[in-house]
Specification:
Layout lengths: L17 E3 L4 E6 L7 E5 L8 E6 L1 H10 L15 E2 L3 E4 H9 L12 E6 L6 H10 L1 H4 L7 E2 L3 E9 L9 E10 L7
Antiparallel strand pairs: 1-4, 2-3, 5-8, 6-7, 7-10, 9-10
């Protein structure tokens, strides 16, 4: 099937991390973002077909978290310009109870507050502010809260089962949690 180039611009009209209709999942394979772990692989043709706004592209999402790339524009974020709109404060103990214990430093107390960004890497402040206005999902969220992202973070692979017998779960996305300062209990 042939997909036309969209008039919508990737990184301007549509977030860079968004999956497009011309980008089918292609199976499981080795991924540079998850060394040693099999991952969901997906074709890469951003800007072709129609954007699937509520679906992240598997590889671009993992790359955005691993390299701290802004999910809106795809460019690197820098210390001092990393912002989140949807992250929630949780305790390290809550994340351990949710099965993410392998990714949480053992010296991090269960009561320590972390910033659970889920699968959304920090954005540049300008990109976050534009997204809050332009994105229907974000602009409708009464709990939207623009806040700086932590200077330290941890990454956890989010695994999904496969439909192939005997194949263990594979990485679909990466989850990101910021580690707050010890005194930050908000």
């Amino acid at each position: 099937m042939t997909f036309p180039l969209s008039r919508l611009k990737v990184g301007i009209d549509v977030p860079w991390v968004t999956s497009w209709s011309a980008e089918p999942v292609t199976g499981v394979g080795a991924c540079l973002t998850t060394p040693g772990l099999p991952a969901v692989m997906q074709a890469s043709r951003p800007g072709y077909g129609k954007p699937n706004y509520s679906e992240n592209h598997h590889y671009r999402q993992r790359l955005s978290v691993q390299r701290m790339l802004c999910p809106m524009c795809g460019q690197p974020t820098q210390k001092g310009d990393r912002w989140t709109l949807t992250a929630k404060r949780k305790t390290a103990g809550t994340l351990r109870a949710q099965g993410l214990g392998d990714s949480i430093p053992s010296d991090l107390a269960d009561t320590r507050v972390v910033i659970d960004a889920g699968a959304i890497a920090p954005l540049h402040k300008a990109c976050a502010e534009a997204s809050a206005v332009q994105c229907p999902h974000l602009s409708a969220d009464p709990a939207l809260d623009l806040k700086t992202f932590a200077l330290r973070w941890m990454i956890s692979p989010l695994l999904v089962p496969t439909d192939q017998p005997g194949l263990p779960p594979v990485v679909a996305f990466l989850q990101l949690c910021g580690i707050t300062d010890a005194h930050d209990r908000r």
